[in-house]
Specification:
This protein has about 350 residues and is an alpha/beta fold. It has twelve helices and 18 strands. It folds into two domains: about 180 residues, Quinone Oxidoreductase, Chain A, domain 1; about 130 residues, Rossmann fold, CATH 3.40.50. Strands 3, 5, 6, 9, 10, 17 and 18 form a seven-stranded mixed beta sheet that branches. A six-stranded parallel beta sheet has the order 13-12-11-14-15-16, sandwiched between helices. Its EC number is 1.1.1.103.
């Protein structure tokens, strides 16, 4: 058995540990991948902190991480259309293939989904194995850094493309990496105004680099003031809630036009009150979003990049995997874009 380096949640306490573990062994229908880059996600921060969610969800020890890019090094017998040397990313939601939704081709709605780096060993390692059905081959050239963030980019694309955006006024609450990518998508596909809110000036500055109409710091300015600056009178047509913050959703609901549509990706930490009477009287649609559509979202992502969407401003920090502690602290600061770990050395 060969050993490899991996970031492991070894003990039921805060922290992650860089240790030697056995290389994964290729199973039937699987692909083995040499990891090049990984992205740090909010989920990984929860696991490192070992909060209530992590305590209830994880079986330890566990190799964490689910955002990655890498080269295929081995392919199981019978796997077609994936070759050694291919640059790949991976869909981190593994579905059962047997439930009603899977059988109907709605795999993103599988009731039995398990998560890479949450329910099974993940991508913060030199090698990982994944079912071939979860491997996305990059058929057009893409930088390994960008390929590593296809999972969160997919969250952004799935959310942004939930409702038609052409010519619409779009409000995005939360300028974290996924909010920033959603803003880039909304601008790219032809929304009229794209307003994004946050309380971090650093993140709002990144948003201006991506071409938004308005980046509003809601610790200083109101949405009403933002709408005045955009010369808007009737409220937003489409809302993308990316923060999980109760005030953000309440603010959004209060500033939607009648018949407005809201897609919610941000995961609240606790229950909170919502002004349901406004939802009813303004005839709003609220849609929950989780993960990516398999594999419609992946096609959308590849095509958007092919057509000139530039995600490079969203990636703000790069570290060697050996400096994972500094990288995680940077990601946890809430002031940066996407943080990448390099495993290629």
């Amino acid at each position: 058995m060969h050993a490899m380096k991996a970031l492991v949640k070894e003990r039921a306490e805060p922290g992650l540990w860089l240790v030697d573990v056995p290389e994964p062994v290729l199973g039937p229908g699987e692909v083995k991948i040499r990891v090049l880059r990984t992205g740090i996600c909010g989920t990984d921060l929860h696991i490192r902190k070992f909060d209530d969610w992590a305590r209830q969800t994880l079986t330890l020890p566990l190799i964490v991480g689910h955002e990655f890019s890498g080269h295929v090094v081995e392919v199981a017998d019978g796997v077609e259309d994936i070759a050694v040397g291919d640059l790949v990313s991976g869909e981190g939601h593994l579905v059962c293939g047997k439930c009603r939704n899977c059988m109907a081709g709605r795999r993103h709605l599988c009731r039995n989904t398990i998560g890479l780096g949450v329910h099974r060993d993940g991508a913060f390692a030199e090698y990982l194995t994944l079912p071939a059905t979860n491997v996305w081959v990059h058929r057009t050239p893409v930088h390994p850094d960008v390929a590593a963030i296809f999972d969160p980019f997919g969250n952004a694309v799935h959310t942004a493309l939930s409702f038609p955006l052409v010519g619409e006024d779009v409000l995005i609450t939360g300028a974290g990496p996924i909010g920033l990518m959603a803003a880039a998508v909304a601008t790219h596909v032809g929304a009229r105004n794209v307003a994004i809110t946050d309380v971090s000036d650093e993140r709002l500055n990144l948003a201006t680099k991506l071409g938004v109409s308005l980046a509003l710091n809601v610790s200083r300015d109101t949405l009403a003031e933002g709408m005045r600056r955009l010369n808007m009178h009737e409220g937003f047509d489409v809302g993308l809630e990316m923060s999980g913050n109760p005030a953000a959703l309440r603010d959004m609901i209060a500033n939607m036009t009648h018949g407005g549509k809201i897609a919610m990706l941000g995961l609240p930490a606790a229950d909170f009150a919502v002004d349901w009477s406004t939802v009813v009287t303004s005839m709003l649609t609220i849609k929950g979003i989780y993960g990516r559509e398999m594999y419609e979202t992946w096609y959308n992502m590849s095509v958007l990049l092919e057509k000139g969407l530039d995600l490079s401003p969203v990636i703000t920090d790069r570290f060697s995997y050996e400096d994972f502690d500094t990288a995680f602290n940077t990601a946890a600061s809430g002031r940066t874009g996407k943080v990448i770990l390099d495993w290629s050395a």
